[in-house]
Write a structure and sequence with these properties.
- By secondary structure, the protein is α/β, with parallel strands linked by helices.
- It has a single domain, classed as Rossmann fold (3-Layer(aba) Sandwich), CATH 3.40.50.
- Helix content is 24%, strand content 27%.
- An eight-stranded mixed β-sheet has the order 3-2-1-4-5-8-7-6.
- The chain is globular and about 40 Å long.
- The termini are far apart.
Length: 192
Amino acid sequence: MRIIAGSKRGMKLFSPKTDVSRPITDRVKESLFSMLYSYDLPSGKMIADLFCGVGSIGLEALSRGAEFVTFVEKDPEIASILKENIEKAGFANASKVKMTNAFRAGAPIGLQRKKYDLVFVDPPYPTTKDVQAESALSGLLNLLPEQLNEDGIVVVRTHKDVELLEEYGLLKVLQRRIWGTMAVTILNKKHT
């Protein structure tokens, strides 16, 4: 795993010695960020990377000019590797790590009280099989609008066989893309 573009292009990331993570391929990461550029992201924006693992997506966003990234990861071993990657990339002052369950906390807003322009949601695939109204994923998506700027977007990564509902409270689906075995769904706030 590595950072593929921006100020830290080519930097290899530390990874766990286990197979619990689902690393995103360089090709898919490039396609995802190309899609985000059409929303004027990530440069200069506040970002949250939920279920972030070793930080591949959030660090890529920082390398591409994001203002700040909040990384949310509950596994202490993975969070330790994440902190090593942040330090190696020199992004300690442009990020913070929250060790908590993202299903409960969402994208925690820090002392600066700035809401997020972009929230990546990449939970373990088994937790996204149920996308209905009472599911853990639905609960998280209903929580995020209060942590999101008015024009902010949410990017949810799931297995390609999982299709999100069209709406979750104040969030509605804008588009969905499939790459290999994964799908990415982009949602934003409904404007009334």
